[in-house]
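Write out the 3D structure for:
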Amino acid sequence: MADTNHSTSTGSTGPFQTTTLEIVTGNREVALDITDRCAAFLDERAPGRDGLLNVFVPHATAGIAVLETGSGSDDDFLATLRQLLPADDRWRHRHGSPGHGRDHVVPGLVAPHATLPVLGGQLALGVWQSVVLIDTNGDNPRRTVRLSFLG
């Protein structure tokens, strides 16, 4: 099960605010909704402000997506990645668990970042949109996510 261990912050005033989240994703692929963590960061660091939130995962085997969760779409997304990128021996990148090379292709399809509008201190997402950490790499159970607000 995914869990946030801790966060660190830099900058407490001014137009640029940033923090990092340390998230445990476990040893299986996951589409983890982090919208609430993004909203909490904005509540604390950008109340009432307009600007942009950048969500970045500095890993070669993970990405950030904006998609619906909870109704099966997140599971469908992971199933689509499994179909497009099977965990088999076709990959030239061969360290780690069998098929791990596919995990290094994921950020080419699911960018390691998303930049989102913030209006009045709130994410300006569509009704069914969530900010989702996509992690198919069971070899690395811990992820860092950097949240940066500019406004």
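The longest helix spans residues 73-84.
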